Every structure is written in C-alpha cells, then in structure tokens.
Amino acid sequence: MREPTVSAGIVSGLAAYAASRGAQPAKLYEAAGIDPDLLEDADNRVAFTAYKQLMRSAAAACADPDFALHFAEAVDMSEVSIVGLIMNASATMGEAFRQMQRYGRLAIELEETGGTPRHQLVHKSGALWMVDTHPEADEFPELCESAFARLVCGPRRFLNRPHILEVHFRRAAPADRREYDRIFGCLVKFSCDWNAMRLAPGMADWPVALQPHYVFGVLTDRADTLLHEMETARTTRGEVEAAILPVLHTGEVSAHRIAAMLGVSRQTLFRRLKSEGTSFKAVLDALRCRMATDYLRGRKASVNETAYLVGFSDPPAFSRAYKRWTGQSPRDIRNTLR
After folding, report:
1. Could you tell me the pTM of the whole model?
2. Could you say which of 3.10.50.30, 3.40.120.10, 3.30.43.10, 1.10.10.60 is the CATH number of the domain covering 235-337?
3. Which of 5, 211, 242, 268 could form a disulfide with 45 if both were Cys (CB 3.0 to 4.6 A apart)?
C-alpha cells in the first residue's frame, strides 16, 4: 500500500501560519522529518505521517489545542492549494463541491477508498449533509476539523447568509469547546455517528465565481496534469519511466537493466507491465517520443542532438522512429514552430 501524501503548499502554509504565532519552522520541520527544500515547489508531495507530526508539533509550539481550527480559519485553501483556487473560480457552490471531489487528492491524498471521494453528499431526514467518510478522521480528528472549518470560513467571506446549519463530529467533546462554537457559528455536536455538516437548502445554486471564468479552465488543465502525474507515479509504468529517464541519453536502456534497477526480474517486469495493458517497448517508445517532442518544441536541441539525448546513436534511425510515432518528421516539428 502506497503512503498517503499532502501537497507541499499546505505543509509550507501550515508552517508559515505557525511561524506567525511564534513557532520556529526549522524546528517544526526537523521534528516532522521534512526536508525544507522539498517545499520550494508547492506541487511536491510530503508524507501524510510527516504532515500529522507537523500539525501536532505546531500545536504544541503555539500552545494551542485548537491549532487545526485556527489554521483553517486564518488561511484560505486558495492560498495553499490549486484545489482552493479551482473552487473559488467555480460558478456555484455545487460546482465548487464537485471540483473538490474531483481534485481533493491534490491537497491531501489518503489511502484508497475504492475510488469513492472522501466527501460525500447524503440525504437524511429531509436534510442534505456533507459527510467526511475517511476513517483517518477518527485517529487524526484535526484532519476532519480543519477541512470542515475551511469549508465554513472560506465561503463565509463572500456569502451573505449561513450555508452550514449544523456540524457533527465522531470525536468526544473537548474540555473547552468555545472555539468550535465560535468558528462554526452553528450547532456543533460531538460523539456522533459520523463526521458531517448539514447544508442550507438550495446552497448548491448559490454563486461563487471569485475569479474570471477563463481562470477555471486554466486551473483545471493544470490540476488534471498533476493528477495524471500522481497516478502514473503509483504504477509500474511510472516506476519504469522514472528509472529510464536518468539513463535515456546513454542509449543503454534494456529491459534487463531497468528490471535490475527496480529490484525485480525481467519476467516480473514484463508481467506487471502487461497487467497494466502495456509493454516495456511501448513505455520506452512513448517516453522517447515525449522527451523528443519537448526538446524539439522548445528548440532546446537540434534534431541530431535530440536523437542522442533520447538514446539513438544514429540520427536517421531516430527520424524514422519519430515519424512512425507521430506521423511527422522531427524537422517538421521544428519548421512548424519557426
């Protein structure tokens, strides 16, 4: 089972908020085992276990048992994740929720739940509830509490009416519940059968659109790319591509060598790729084609240089292969862009 992850943007946002409360980020990173260099790109991934430790270390450093609630109240999701930006660019609250279901893994990716999004809409006794279905919320209640607080505090900044009418938590009531009552601003119950929020009737049609509509398309295109990268990284194909890239230019990219780099036999590698509907040759050809196109379109290398960079010792052989892959010659690509 692969390890759950959190976006580096959320991790660095948490540390920055803790710093504003007097904590020292370097000490927090050390306690959580997080490499600060990893956080320079907000789309990098950090182990979820490290994020949990960071959250709890920050709460201790700030002497704040309600740190998760205060972090969610103070820092909007749009400040730390592309998911928040997409939700803010949605036309309605209903659309924003659908995008949260679609892209939520880019913010916090937990263990697989059978393909079911973590947050679900449930009708019960004539009311509509948003339910956090993931069991991790019981062991780490800050996960659910911060998510719910963001979903309350974020829209509250632009809606002129209450959109959350009641909040339920599975956890036992804290010794001091005043911050829960203040932040949620509605009925809050503990020791319930679920983690859920009751939504205002008709809320799905309430407008959002805090960003121009064209921004929505730009953001979702980027988010789709990030999701693809995450999903590919989990597959044998992704592992093979990652192993090939550093040695692609050498031309010495055999199935036997890559299998050895991955610590499996050649036959096992072939079997795993076959189960994913592909083969070693198909993965290698697709990677060569993608990298060559990137070099050619970016005018980063000549046709001959591109041939060597993707592992061909004979440029004419590369040109023939590229035309077979794409229907165009390498020079066609460069001349089109000139």
Report:
1. 0.68
2. 1.10.10.60
3. 5
